[in-house]
Design brief:
- It contains 21 helices and no strands.
- The protein is an all-alpha fold.
- It has one domain.
- It is globular, with a radius of gyration of 21 Å.
- It holds the Pfam family DctM.
Length: 425
């Protein structure tokens, strides 16, 4: 009965058009009423405590870093560098998109920000070169979702806080899975464009490649600072977010000089608005997470999945399919916050490594950003690229299938995730 009330109240509120954060609060209030413990003071206290977390400070700083990188010229220089490297091969603009997406992912951690930047910079060029607009938009959207997987990752921060798992280990474990997803896009793009008659841009000279590298060097240094800083304990993930924000601000204002003091105020306001939405979602979800624990829902779920506990791979497949279905209706952040407290006891009971689960869980939720009908990244690409949602959805299917295939391969072969991850621990 508790599960029915939990799901019914939340889904019913969402069906009425109530924003997700308020639906989560309503769901928490319904559970409190069902458990005969309704108290508005407890509700408010849990909302405040939900956002009162030192690790969660990483979220606003990573978001601010992403805003600064896009406005301060770091993103454009990375795209230009990728263009100099692979722009001249057949279908080169697609490979430029993938390479640039991987590099940008190691800077910001925000799928929407990366996808929007890549759409603005590359979609007009791909269409002008003769590539199908829907397919190009689909590639950009699917490349954008690599951002929550390669560190630094806002999604890993949120999952780490909700699951009480080491954020540093999640960051390190996400490096190679993000690369595998990029490789799947490379092969899919190659297969789709092999028969296209598109004239690629001319090959850059060695001097031009070196010049593009020189201009992008300041942007390319940041991922190494973050990875090595975390690896050798120089700073925590939260402090890494501050490093990323301050570094990108310094480079944009002092080195590249593309941002002025006057431009910083609207930039900070924009980042604050975006961050406030995420943090309110986190705070509201923590109310439901607390009540999920009080109502002993995890134990009920463990009992339901008891037959699968002896087969970790089968259990992972079942959980991933469930997450795929939820991801079609919910955005990444509420999905992580809602399912994590329910699923973690099941994962621990089955003896599955929480870091391994966290990586696959976040990958699944990242792909959910390009699954219709919600598809936040699809909406961002459609809006920035001035293309209909139907066309983006049509173009994204082959890439989305390739990424889901890689995800299930990681379930079949966990060493694809854990062996490389332990190199960085």
């Amino acid at each position: 009965m508790t599960i029915i009330i939990f799901l019914g109240s939340m889904l019913g509120a969402m069906a009425l058009g109530i924003p997700i954060a308020f639906s989560l609060l309503l769901c928490g209030a319904a559970l409190m009423w069902h458990l005969n413990m309704f108290d508005a003071q407890i509700l408010a206290q849990n909302v405040i405590n939900g956002a009162d977390s030192f690790p969660l400070l990483a979220v606003p700083f990573f978001m601010l870093a992403g805003e600064i990188m896009n406005a301060g010229g770091l993103s454009r220089r990375i795209v230009n560098f990728a263009m100099a490297l692979v722009g001249h091969v057949k279908g080169g603009l697609g490979y430029v998109t993938i390479v640039a997406a991987v590099i940008l992912a190691s800077l910001s951690g925000s799928a929407v920000a990366d996808a929007a930047a890549l759409t603005a910079l590359l979609l007009p060029m791909m269409v002008a070169a003769g590539h199908d607009k829907a397919r190009s938009a689909g590639l950009i959207a699917s490349a954008g979702i690599i951002a929550p997987i390669i560190p630094p990752s806002i999604a890993f921060v949120i999952f780490g806080v909700a699951a009480n798992v080491s954020i540093s280990k999640l960051f390190m474990a996400g490096i190679f899975p993000g690369i595998w997803l990029a490789v799947s896009l490379v092969f899919t793009w190659w297969y789709l464009v092999r028969k296209e008659v598109v004239v690629p841009p001319p090959r850059k000279t060695a001097a031009e490649v070196v010049e593009a590298l020189r201009l992008a060097t300041w942007a390319l240094v940041l991922p190494f600072i973050i990875v090595f800083g975390l690896k050798f304990g120089v700073f925590t993930p939260t402090e890494a977010a501050v490093v990323a924000a301050v570094y990108s601000l310094f480079v944009s204002t002092v080195i590249y000089r593309e941002l002025t003091i006057k431009q910083l105020v609207p930039l900070f306001v924009s980042a604050a608005k975006t961050c406030s939405v995420v943090m309110f979602l986190v705070a509201a979800a923590m109310v439901s997470a607390w009540l999920i624990t009080v109502a002993n829902l995890p134990a009920q779920v463990v009992a339901l999945l008891q037959p699968l506990l002896d087969s970790p791979r089968l259990l992972m497949v079942a959980i991933m399919v469930l997450t795929m279905l939820v991801g079609t209706a919910l955005d990444m952040t509420p999905t992580i916050l809602l399912l994590t407290p329910v699923l973690m006891p099941v994962i621990k009971a089955a003896g599955i490594d929480p870091v391994y689960f966290g990586v696959l869980f976040v990958i699944n939720n990242a792909i959910g950003l390009i699954t219709p009908p919600v598809g936040t990244v699809l909406n961002a690409v459609a809006g920035v690229g001035k293309i209909s949602m139907d066309e983006v959805t049509r173009g994204v299917w082959p890439f989305m299938i390739a990424q889901f295939t890689i995800m299930f391969l990681m379930i079949a072969f966990p060493q694809l995730v854990m062996v490389p991850a332990r190199w960085f621990y």
